[in-house]
Predict the 3D structure of the following.
Amino acid sequence: MGLGETGMFVSMLIGYSLAFIGVGMFIHGWRAVYRARHDERLVTDGLYRFVRHPQYTGLFLALFGEGVIHWPTIFSVVLFPVIVLAYYLLARKEERGMIRKFGDEYRAYMRKVPMLLPRPRRWKELAKKSQQPRS
């Protein structure tokens, strides 16, 4: 992009920051689902207050940070929207199963909480929550 070493350093910092936040979201989301499956309950707290699929949102942030911002290649830039589409379709399929399992409880949750992207004012809160250590 013609920004030299400074531009590369800035893109590296931004890319790694997004990747770090994304991996944190993925891990926290996975832990919450793991615990909920054991208890056979619907997760609506923690990261799930912000988006219904924080693991996928975290994956997208990590891939975007590393594969599009920090180290973009033709392959990673072209593949990113394909991955987003594939996981969006997977999330829709999973939600049909959640409706079968939890019924109106999940429908009410769907009305309150966005699928993959938090509301604009909640991104900062979501990023902080994804980096907090769990006890």
Observations:
- The radius of gyration is 16 Å.
- Residues 4-39 form the longest helix (36 residues).
